[in-house]
Design brief:
Length: 155
């Protein structure tokens, strides 16, 4: 591994640590238009995602609360930062891109345009047992936007 690659790994680890210790938008939301629960039984991660959509379908605000491992919390924090201000249709498309990027067999595949900050989760892709911790928030996002009944589960 080159020193640059090592530096990037360290940077990514620092980002995950920072977001897990000080998650952004970690609060209950009053006046949410969409709410979904997500559970990852494999790890015990639980979260409730809140969205407030404008009339034109823009995600004006998102927040979450819950408990889980560092990766699940950091991923949810990064997700709220990523989708705030984004159109719901784009966010739904991103759900597919992010889950296939995290779960996909093509390790050389870069993260898509607009999703660059999620590159911090790159190391998770090497640990299949932890991928669901990282995708949990995105499953909850998809469920919330689709207004599906019942909690989103990674299983
Ligand atoms: Zn977890």
């Amino acid at each position: 591994m080159t020193s640059t690659a090592t530096d990037m790994r360290q940077l990514y680890r620092d980002v995950i640590l920072d977001h897990s210790r000080s998650p952004r938008h970690f609060r209950r939301m009053d006046g949410a238009t969409h709410v979904a629960d997500g559970i990852n039984p494999l790890c015990g991660d639980k979260l409730r995602l809140y969205l407030r959509l404008d009339d034109d379908g823009t995600i004006a605000a998102s927040s979450f609360e819950g408990s889980g491992c560092a990766i699940s919390v950091a991923s949810a924090s990064l997700m709220t930062e990523t989708v705030n201000g984004v159109n719901a249709a784009t966010a739904t498309r991103w759900f597919g891109e992010v889950t296939s990027w995290l779960e996909g067999p093509h390790k050389e595949q870069p993260i898509g345009h607009g999703l660059e900050r999620l590159a911090a989760l790159d190391g998770v892709r090497d640990f299949p047992g932890r991928v669901k911790c990282a995708t949990l928030a995105w499953h909850a996002l998809s469920t919330a936007l689709n207004n599906e009944a019942g909690p989103a589960s990674t299983e």
